[in-house]
């Protein structure tokens, strides 16, 4: 029969451990980022159905940290988007927060901005949430309007609904390498630019029209040359 201190430990220690685990889990996982609820390095942002998570990650054999989105329950762990690809976190006090201007900001321990959503925001009441399709969005806290989306700057994994960055002046698509490969580059990451003709991104009908027109003109020129050659021989 248990008495005194032993009885207390036997009956209440499991409850104490359970409550601590519960509280730690609640502290480590959050559902949004607000001006009063930044994301620290020991926390993760989770999508509603626990499909994706966003947090601070460190590539293998690297001391640098990056804020990225990963599949939560799929092995191997796959990074689908990275915020600070070219500007890694090197201290332990960095956080992802809503700044005074309402933008998402990754700041170090000295409040130096390492990355920002950098969009026009009316107030600092904006909220950042992670959706079950892998999209990380900044919303107006009052209207719910999307102010910024991670899909506008996709990573190594092209998720459904995401788009490629396109420069109308240079005709370039932007595609970035995966976070896990960053340790191979001294700069902390590489960006791959693929140059395409503007017609490559045009609507299908326009592209078909261009091909038909070029084919028709080529046939006319060849036919004209043959007729001229036959007439000249006579």
UniProtKB/TrEMBL annotation:
Q: At the top level of its lineage, which domain of life is listed?
A: Eukaryota
- Residue limits of the Bulb-type lectin domain? 30-151
Query: Which organism's genome codes for this protein?
Result: Rubroshorea leprosula
Query: Which residue spans traverse the membrane?
Result: 7-28, 210-231
One Pfam family assigned to this protein is B_lectin
Q: Write out the entry's keywords from A to Z.
A: Disulfide bond, Glycoprotein, Membrane, Signal, Transmembrane, Transmembrane helix
SUPFAM superfamilies linked: alpha-D-mannose-specific plant lectins
Name of this chain's protein: Bulb-type lectin domain-containing protein
């Amino acid at each position: 029969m248990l008495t005194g201190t032993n009885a207390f430990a036997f009956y209440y220690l499991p409850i104490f451990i359970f409550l601590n685990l519960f509280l730690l889990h609640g502290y480590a996982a959050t559902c949004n980022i607000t001006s009063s609820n930044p994301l620290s390095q020991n926390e993760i942002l989770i999508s509603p159905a626990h499909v994706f998570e966003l947090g601070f990650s460190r590539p293998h054999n690297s001391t640098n940290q990056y804020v990225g989105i990963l599949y939560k329950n799929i092995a191997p762990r796959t990074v689908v988007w990275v915020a600070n690809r070219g500007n890694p976190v090197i201290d332990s006090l960095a956080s992802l927060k809503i700044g005074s201007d309402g933008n998402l900001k990754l700041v170090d321990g000295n409040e130096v901005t390492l990355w920002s959503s950098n969009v026009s925001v009316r107030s600092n009441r904006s909220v950042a949430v992670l959706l079950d399709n892998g999209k990380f969005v900044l919303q107006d806290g009052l209207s719910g309007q999307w102010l910024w989306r991670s899909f506008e700057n996709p990573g190594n994994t092209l998720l459904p609904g995401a788009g490629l960055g396109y420069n109308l002046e240079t005709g370039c698509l932007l595609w970035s390498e995966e976070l896990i490969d960053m340790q191979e580059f001294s700069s902390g990451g590489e960006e791959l630019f693929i140059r395409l003709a503007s017609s490559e991104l045009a609507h299908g009908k326009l592209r078909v029209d261009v091909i038909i027109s070029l084919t028709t003109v080529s046939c006319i020129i060849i036919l004209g040359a043959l007729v001229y050659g036959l007439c000249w021989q006579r």
